[in-house]
Amino acid sequence: MNNNRRRNFRPRSQKNNFRRRNGSVNSNSSNFSGNVNVNYNRNGSMNNVYNVEKAMQKFNQLAKDAQTNGDPILAQNYLQHADHYLRKYNELNFKKEDLTDKSKVSENSSIEVKEKT
Question: Which residue numbers in the chain have pLDDT < 70?
């Protein structure tokens, strides 16, 4: 069998003309569909610098609150989460700066080419 070939599945007709809200044709009561990643929706993308910054600030504030309440273990947990988001924030900013630098270089090179012609 050729593994690179894509299979086309046709859904079975629904019993008693009953329509489910999510359009699923599974007869069982679970929300499992054939492709697991289809219904996966993350609340807030972690590729957006502003969302990452907001999450980082949230965990820093939670760490302060936990420290104030006398729970150093929970405070450390929140600080580790904030550190994760700080690394993600720095990574996204680095990518953003790298893209702007590349666009500036390409603009300068296109200007130089136009001046030569």
Answer: 1-7, 9-44, 110-117
